[in-house]
Amino acid sequence: MKSNPDHPTPTSRFAGRGHASAWPEARELGYDEGVRARTEHLLERVADVVPQAEWPLHAPLIDAINRLKVERNAVILAHNYMTPEIFHCVGDATGDSLKLAQLAAESDADIIVQAGVHFMAETAKILAPEKTVLVPDLRAGCSLAASITGADVRRIRQAYPAYPIVTYVNTSAEVKAESDICCTSSNAVQVVEAVAGQWGTDTAILIPDEYLAKNVASQTAVRILTWKGACEVHERFTAEEIAQLRSEHPDAMIITHPECPPDVLKAADFAGSTGAMAAFVRDQAPKTAILITECSMSDNVAVENPGTRFIRPCNLCPHMKTISLAGIYESLRRLQFEVNVDPDVARRARSSVQAMLDLPGSEKPPAFDTRRPITAADYVAV
Ligand code: 13P
Ligand code: SF4
């Protein structure tokens, strides 16, 4: 195949089969009667959260993506922070970080398109090394993943050889490879307690999110040491903002994510992973809900909970928002951008992720008790 700057050489096993050229560029797709009819049911689904005026722009891409997925035997894993036209109209499997990792491991598709950020695509590749894993935009990073390197974890290991290192999945494969076990926001307390028990220690190192670590510390007797990383979306919420929202909407349920500072959780009614937040709204069916998290989450949850009114004091994740329908379409059309992990790093990272997935189900609900007192967590000294 000749190299062409407009059509990078496909890196997957589909290279040279001519699939990429069989489909028009995103800008050439039009909104005609066929597209309208094939996407009508999806418009009905998202009509309350996607402006009608935008539909003629979204529908041709949604239609093309859904047909291309079948042709490629591809599956789109969409995180809860994707915009609703992605989440509800092209996502085959949706959820929080833990659920997406489990789905990647179980999928029998040839191609996984990760509608989420780069660390999620790497996790999918680690768990499904035989599959082609694509991320639609290489800018889709994460402030937590950028806060720590594999060399940092090696220095922590040297300084604290007696304590297990629990790494949040929002990290690079290299960081996972240096760790003992991974966790997500839906199982962090369970993982810390299990691994401290296995190692026979009273202390676990939970990196790199200092707020998640402090919030875990308030839920467990295990002493937690941590790192000074933070999520740039959740660190910006403040307890004063929550108090203000509470006084303006006294009947609303305030639901937070554990990447928020501890005093934000303390001021809320519920805290948990994005999956646990969505389940809480579904199960409690509050009249009014306030989700203290990324902006698209309320839109996606609102679609499934028409009886709840959402107040939306959100922060955008600039990394998640690099993922668009046009990017997903180009990703499937050109088989770009393929995510690969060095086999030795992947093998060691897999053992950390798999150790998390292999833990037995917990009796504890995947939620943080916001009534518990705030507990200190020290930083590792390296
Ligand atoms: P969860 O979906 O696992 O709660 O993670 C939230 C997040 O910030 C992902 O980047
Ligand atoms: Fe990273 Fe926060 Fe964005 Fe999630 S929301 S990808 S943790 S910066």
Automatic annotation (TrEMBL):
The record, for HAMAP family, names: NadA_type2
This chain's function reads: Catalyzes the condensation of iminoaspartate with dihydroxyacetone phosphate to form quinolinate.
Specify where it is mainly localized.
cytoplasm
**Entry's localization field:** Cytoplasm
> What are the record's GO terms for cellular component?
cytosol
The organism sits in which domain of life?
Bacteria
Q: What is this protein called?
A: Quinolinate synthase
User: What does the record's cofactor remark say about binding?
Assistant: Binds 1 [4Fe-4S] cluster per subunit.
For this UniProt record, give its keywords in alphabetical order, as a comma-separated list.
Answer: 4Fe-4S, Cytoplasm, Iron, Iron-sulfur, Metal-binding, Pyridine nucleotide biosynthesis, Transferase
Asked if Transmembrane is a keyword of the record, the answer is no
Q: What class of enzyme is it?
A: transferase
Query: Species lineage, top-down?
Result: Bacteria, Pseudomonadati, Pseudomonadota, Gammaproteobacteria, Chromatiales
Give the required cofactors.
[4Fe-4S] cluster
Q: Which family does it belong to?
A: Belongs to the quinolinate synthase family. Type 2 subfamily.
Q: Report whether Transcription shows up as a keyword of the record.
A: no
Q: Name one GO biological process term.
A: 'de novo' NAD+ biosynthetic process from L-aspartate
Q: Which residues bind iminosuccinate?
A: 79, 97, 168-170, 185, 257-259, 274
Naturally occurring in which organism (per UniProt): Wenzhouxiangella limi
Q: Name one GO molecular function term.
A: metal ion binding
Positions of [4Fe-4S] cluster binding: 142, 231, 317
